[in-house]
Every structure is written in C-alpha cells, then in structure tokens.
Design brief:
Strand content: 15-25%
Distance between the termini: 36 Å
Radius of gyration: 19 Å
Number of strands: 8
Strand order of the largest sheet: 4-7-8-6-5
Number of domains: 2
Helix content: 40-55%
CATH topology of the largest domain: Mannitol-specific EII, Chain A
Shape: globular
Largest sheet: 5 strands, mixed
Order of helices and strands: EHHEEHHEHHEEEEHHH
Structural class: alpha/beta
C-alpha cells in the first residue's frame, strides 16, 4: 500500500512541512513517483517505531486476503534453526542473530538491529523459561518474499531481564511481509510454546529435524482445537 504525504501527515499527526523537511534531510524513507512522494506502509511503520513516534491505528489495518497464512513449521524451515549463536549480552546476541537472518541482501541489517534494540530498551522480549521473541513494539514487516521464523540457540545463556529472572537460551525472530502474517505466526508460536513436547525440544536444544517435527505436531493440535470449537459453536 503506497501512502501519500497527506496520509503520512494524518498517521503521524505532523504538518506537511515537517514531512517534507524529513524527506529533504534524508531521514524519512520515500519514493518519488511522477513528481509526487509515495511511502511504503511497512517502512513507515518501522521508521516511526524506531523513533518512538506515535502512530495512528489506521496504519495497522491489514486488508483481508484469500492467500493462505504460513504454518509455523514452514516458516521455521524457511528461516532456519541455528545452534551455537555467540554473544555475551543482549546486544551482541541480537547482532549475531540479525547477521544470520535469511533476508534479502538489500535489507538494512543495521537498521533492523536498531529497532530491535529500541524495543528491548522499552521492555524485555524475554517471555520466560529461557525463551525470547525479539520484535519491535508494533508488528515488524519487511520486504521479504515470504514469512520466516528464525530460531537461534545461544552458545551460552544471556540475561534478557525476563520476568521470571531466567537467562535466555533461545531466540525466535519473526520477519513477515504483512501484519496479518506476523500476527498469525505469533499466535501459532505462542500456542506451540504452551505445548510440553515442543517446549522440551527447545529446552533441550533439539536438532532442526526434532524441532520441526514438534512444530508440525503442535500445529496439528491447534487445528484440531479449532475444529472442536467450530463444532461446539
């Protein structure tokens, strides 16, 4: 979805002269189309989030699509499962994770790291039991051909200031082309992390084959739960 200057003014609640000043300074990502500026919704979301700018809720509306949503196992297979990720603190392990992401070469990894660290400064993404799901405050969407989930097992546990006080040994990173896909994958991952066998595979730093098998099994359980609720309803 391409946004106009007027759209951006409304979404960020700033006057047009501010938007044009940001463009002129090279601060705000914009594309010039037929002598008019156009803005990518995903890029605007990332840009505003990294700078702590309040965003209107309209930016998060995702048009309905008939395209099937990705499965967790499928996205994990696309993103990869990495063992022995090195780092001594939160910043260094996030940097190492970003360097391993299977994303297009033109993606600005330094900027991605910046917005991930900005989110951590607001509140830890450590969800407990040694797991963290690094993400920005609002769903992160990037120019990728398909949704990916990357699982990184750390070489040594790192303090993420998680609520349960336990150091983190596993990072899940979600990178998606749409907000809809991001939320769908996050929901599937949240369900899987409540599944005892999937949690055990993560706690024991299972092989890629083991983790993918447990992800598929957990998703199958999720499908069965949806079918049961549908019959009851």
């Amino acid at each position: 979805m391409n946004l106009t200057v007027r759209d951006v003014c409304g979404l960020l609640n700033v006057p047009e002269k501010t938007v044009y000043r940001w463009i002129g300074q090279g601060i705000l990502p914009a594309n010039r189309v037929e002598d008019q500026y156009r803005f990518n919704r995903a890029e605007l979301l990332e840009w505003a989030t990294a700078r702590g700018i309040t965003i209107a809720a309209d930016l998060f509306e995702e048009p309905e699509s008939a395209a099937p949503l990705p499965g967790l196992a499928e996205a994990l297979q696309a993103g990869g499962i990495i063992h022995g990720l090195r780092g001594t603190d939160k910043a260094s392990v996030l940097q190492a994770m970003v360097e391993h992401l299977r994303v297009p070469e033109e993606l600005d990894r330094e900027f991605l790291l910046h917005i991930l660290l900005a989110r951590e400064n607001l509140q830890s993404t450590g969800i407990g039991e040694g797991v963290a799901i690094p993400h920005v405050r609002n769903p992160i969407v990037l120019h990728v051909p398909r949704p990916i989930v990357t699982l990184c097992f750390l070489d040594q546990p790192v303090d993420f200031a998680a609520l349960d006080g336990k150091p983190v040994h596993a990072l899940f990173s979600l990178i998606c082309p749409t907000v809809r896909a991001h939320l769908a994958l996050l929901s599937r991952l949240s369900f899987a992390l409540q599944d005892e066998r999937f949690k055990r595979a993560i706690a024991e730093r299972g092989s890629a084959t083991e983790v993918l098998a447990e992800a598929r099994r957990a998703e199958h359980r999720l499908g069965q739960a949806h079918e049961t609720r549908g019959r009851i309803g």
